[in-house]
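Methods — Computational structure assignment.
A single polypeptide chain was analysed. Its primary sequence is given first, followed by the predicted tertiary structure written as structure tokens.
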Amino acid sequence: MAADHTDVSKTPGDPAASRSAAESGLRRPIALTRLGLVAERLVRAFWPVWTVLLFVLAAIFMGWHETAAVEVLWGAAVLATVALGWFTFQGLRMFCWPSRAEARDRLDASLPGRPIQALGDVQAIGTGDAASVAVWQAHVNRMAARLSKVQPVPGDLRISARDPYALRYVAATAFALALLFGSVFKVATVADVASGSGPELAAGPSWEGWVEPPAYTGRPALYLNDLQAETLELAPGTQVALRLYGEVGALMVDETVSGRTGEAIPPASSPTHDFEVQQAGHISIVGDGGRRWEVVLDEDLPPMVDLAGRMEREAAGTMRQTFTAEDDYGVISGLGRFTLDLEALDRRYGLTVAPDTTAAIEFDLPMPFTGDRDFFSLEIVEDFSKHPWVGLPVELELSVVDAQGQQGLSERQAMAMPGRTFFQPIARALVEQRRDLLWAKANGTRVVDVLRTILHRPEGFINDGSIYLQLSMATRNLNKAVAAGLDDETQAEVAEALWEVAIQLEDGSLSNAMERLRRAQERLTEAMRNGASDEEIADLMQELREAMQDYMRQLAQQQQQGDQQQQQAQNSQEVTGDQLEEMLQRLQELMEQGRMAEAQQLLEQLRQMMENMQVTQGQQGQQNQSPGQQAMEDLADTLRQQQGLSDESFNQLQNQFNQGQQQGQQQGQGQQQGQQSGQGQQGQQGQQQGQGQQQGQGQGQQQGQQQGSGPGEGPPDADALAQRQRELREELQRQAQNLPGAGTPEGDAARDSLGRAGEAMDDAERALGQGDLAEAIDDQARAMEALRDGMRNLGEALAQQQQQQGGQQGQAMGQGNPNDRRDPLGREQGAEGTLGSNDNLMQGEDVYRRARDLLDEIRRRSGEQNRPEIELEYLRRLLDRF
């Protein structure tokens, strides 16, 4: 029997074992609960103490004790001391350190069934009954299980019942504000107030001082009373202000930093001392409570600037030069300066005579828009291609200035004046003569002789009749001016004309177009080889398309010469525009798919094809023009006339502004202005005449002569312009009645566009009749825009008509039926004749360049604030429109 007896206390379900395990797990929760009781009783006992302390500290930090009356200060101090003593005494009486039993009881009360107390109970009856023992054991185990995840009870810190007016929060808020807007250093002055020195200071001698550095330093002002240092490092120009209080003569100022002498120095005992730091020395306040500072000058060093790297020049002549600049307080502005190096100049030909002027070329250096200017590196981007010094030896020097006016210079760098390089022989010769003409007026006769030599036999050099006419006109104007005494205005006009002709010769040559195409192909090849991004590939593809179109246009113009066309036809390759477009699309697809090897091979085939390509144009004369071609040419002529009419309206609007500004001046001056206006209008019409020659093969010249004003003539009045606008509208109505492509969507769209153009012309005629030139110009702009839309829609309608009428699609250009040829862009030329003629005003680089020039001129004039407000408002409307 003894062997079968089981000790209940030793079994896993023994209540004693469960009680022991639970007790060991209660140590940490009971300790934390006890700490919570400590915090709870401290808060309830001593909250008035820290509330009073926060109020007192807030008042001290805000400096109230320095301004309040001494009676108030002592009263407040006594009251605060009594309150602190009383609340501390009451807190000590209330506070009782919690025992472990109290913490145990608090923890047990937070649990259901008070399991801690239950574990301390013992079985009173039924200890000999196994069933009773089992029930008791289950009860103890259940209570122990509840204690397995017991959490400590936090202290109850709520004291709203004890503080119904929330004084503790008011004190905390006041203390926070004092920390933000006051100063903890005010505590140091409490002792002075307590000892009685504070009130005596208010009545006795005292002082205040401030130093304010110059604005360019970016440093804050300093309050000398708060500075403990005995040495001050100040920048020249720092303003010092000292104020002396109390009995006169109790305090005196002694300083040696301003450099003042004689009557400029106020008496040392003067209550006010304001001066500027100019040199090192000392500042002293002599007397009871005075101070002395040794002043060291923080010298403002001059700025520095330097050229960084070599200058780069783009093909169009734009120069790019990186520079660096620095200054201890920041650079304000900078200037670049080109000076001619006459000693290194090769004085030959037109440079043998003395120049009219050798003034340096100055330009502003770019400055950072944001950030510090202590040190920065930027790039100079300028274009001096039109300056006569291009290609001559010059020296570049940069200078920067700081806020003190100190200047920093870079080392002079010798170079050839950057600018555009011309490769076409005649263009290069014209640029050289332009340089000689601008070099000195004495070269006028020599320049005329050289230009006459070029014009004597232009065959093989100048193949464009419009260029020949422009150069011939410039030569005649220069010859007349030289005979009468060359003036600055004519010199500038002829120089500009020579520049324009040189640009047309250079940009219009086939070799340059081929070079541009080759360069675009090389850049695309290099980008594919280096794994360029999709955006870079797309940009290079667009560049290749534009270069190819330019090359095809130049090649077509060159092949207009019969002999040259026959020679090239023997060894040239024939290709259609559709085939070229298909190759470009295939090239782009290969690059998008990542098949760069195949793309490079296709690009090489395209390069070889373009080098051997022959492009032909239809040779039909004016007598064989189709209705579609005739309609396109008529609309183009109408558009040119509308453009000329708009230009004249704008000129007359300017003349009205000038007359309004100069009203009341002498009659002789008014006549002189009228002559200048007539001459300026003649020059503008001449420029339009030259552009019309390029686009219309002679028609623009006749139109420009009809619209131009003779020398000395004033501009036409508004009634005359309204009459011409009405005639132009009637001509447009006649053209719209005979417009081909009726019944097609494109043809109907063309008629709608011309209808809008007619309505805009009606509005322009009405505005001209009322003398509202600004409104008329807006209406004329709408008419030109609608005309361009109509021409574009008409071209699409005729193209659709050609495709329906047939012809050999895909037939090689220059072969087959003469009525089924292609234009220089590869478009079909069926029975309706050529659609892509050179008269299309919406194509060509000249059109875009002219548009950019006009936009730049509008922007320049809109920035001239001395112009009348009505003109500036009109120019702003133009900028908003375009």
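Note: The mean pLDDT is 76.
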